[in-house]
Amino acid sequence: MGKIVYSALQPSGQLTIGNYLGSIRNFKGLQDQYECFFNVADLHSITVPQEPKLLRERTLDLMAIFLASGLEPDKSTLFVQSHVPQHAELSWVLSCMSYMGQLNRMTQFKEKSQKSEENLNAGLFTYPVLMAADILLYQTDLVPVGVDQKQHLELARDLAERFNNKYSDTFVVPEGIIGKETGKIMSLKNPEKKMSKSDEDVNSFILLLDDEETIKRKIKKSVTDSLGNFDYNDEQKGLKNLINMYIAFSGKTSDEIVAKYKTENYSVFKEDLVQLIADSLKPLRDNYKEFISDKAYLEKVMKEGADKASYYATKTLRKVYKKVGFLPR
Ligand code: AMP
Ligand code: TRP
């Protein structure tokens, strides 16, 4: 087998174009080159409160978005995390090898725990261990994610090495694939902050399924600067973020874009960007509508995906249990 790719998203809300550019969009190109596993991380999502009915809907939604973005069940294994119990099982073994100190340094945990002090559950703390289990279970070589997952990926590497050193070679040590311009799309209202669907200001993010009017409104209101010169640099963070979106959707370089809009007002650039985003996302929106209305097909994809994933997951977990010293039944 060639190289293995694994990635996942949580079904914890509607996706933003940050999620799309940082992760999903890169999946399609990978499925033609590698053995790919793409997963709906429902176990991860309950680290924050979820309404059961909504969670079910969002799980199906994410599956439909995977398919709408061009992922094909014949090429990629598409499945739901809770359908393969080995994720939770390996997570337990790895958690017994994880240091509290290292988990305590996870910046996402620190941020999330500040936000939800009344719901500081143990799952939120051990969440990166579950993510390591996801990755290591499939002997993954490559993990396409956004910048915010870098530290979690580092933990997965550490755990793989720690286990290999202690019990002999068992896990592949994975590497990340993180986009230079798209690894961290920033908030439209505050370019110091990551674009996030949980932001209370709805104008700070564009949802994958937003229509053109909504995209227009949000881009129009997006923060740039009062300098007025069209450049791509770190002093003009708001503009740089918009240019990064333009780069991602057009395939043009920052130099080409700067040359094109150098003598224009920001508003001209913004109008073109709206059109570019809306046109690029339209096929995805149309495909999504078709897939989400065919529940029988979604269920078939999920079931076949889970069967295939289980095969690989069982193989790895068996090895792990044996090395740790658990008796076979
Ligand atoms: P999540 O919604 O937290 O499950 O994130 C799913 C994927 O989207 C992960 O690979 C994240 O790193 C990525 N992601 C989330 N927000 C952004 C963003 N603003 N820019 C780029 N990638 C992002
Ligand atoms: N923790 C990731 C996020 O919130 C989602 C995720 C779970 C993931 N398991 C993974 C990403 C394994 C990559 C590989 O975005």
From TrEMBL:
A motif ('KMSKS' region) lies at residues 194-198. It is found in: Cytoplasm. L-tryptophan binds at residue 134. It holds the Pfam family tRNA-synt_1b. Its EC number is 6.1.1.2. PROSITE patterns: AA_TRNA_LIGASE_I (PS00178). It is an enzyme of class 6 (ligase). One of its GO terms (molecular function) is tryptophan-tRNA ligase activity. GO terms for biological process: tryptophanyl-tRNA aminoacylation. GO terms for cellular component: cytosol. InterPro entries: aa-tRNA-synth_I_CS (IPR001412), aa-tRNA-synth_Ic (IPR002305), Rossmann-like_a/b/a_fold (IPR014729), Trp-tRNA-ligase (IPR002306), Trp-tRNA-ligase_bac-type (IPR024109), Trp-tRNA_synthetase (IPR050203). ATP binds at residues 10-12, 18-19, 146-148, 185, 194-198. It catalyses: tRNA(Trp) + L-tryptophan + ATP = L-tryptophyl-tRNA(Trp) + AMP + diphosphate + H(+). Signal peptide: none annotated. A motif ('HIGH' region) lies at residues 11-19. Keywords: Aminoacyl-tRNA synthetase, ATP-binding, Cytoplasm, Ligase, Nucleotide-binding, Protein biosynthesis. It comes from the Bacteria. Its main location: cytoplasm. Catalyzes the attachment of tryptophan to tRNA(Trp). Belongs to the class-I aminoacyl-tRNA synthetase family. Homodimer. This is Tryptophan--tRNA ligase. It comes from Parvimonas micra.
